[in-house]
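Structure in, sequence out. Go:
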């Protein structure tokens, strides 16, 4: 598991997948989320614009990231 530092909160789920390199583009991120391939805090998440905050965990394609604040 790796930690991702959020400079501001909240951040939409599809943007985190894209900017952290878990998917090649925002479109692919949205498709992965809609397909039910992404877990947020251990639950399947199908909302592309789900607001993510520090403390949340995202699992996709065998990779897990934990969101933290920069404080």
């Amino acid at each position: 598991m790796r930690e991702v530092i959020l400079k501001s909160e909240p951040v939409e789920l599809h943007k985190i997948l894209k900017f952290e390199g878990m998917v090649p583009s925002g479109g692919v991120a949205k498709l992965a989320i809609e397909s039910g391939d992404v877990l947020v805090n251990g639950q399947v998440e199908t909302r592309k614009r789900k607001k993510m905050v520090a403390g949340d965990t995202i699992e996709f394609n065998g990779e897990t990231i934990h969101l933290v604040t920069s404080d």
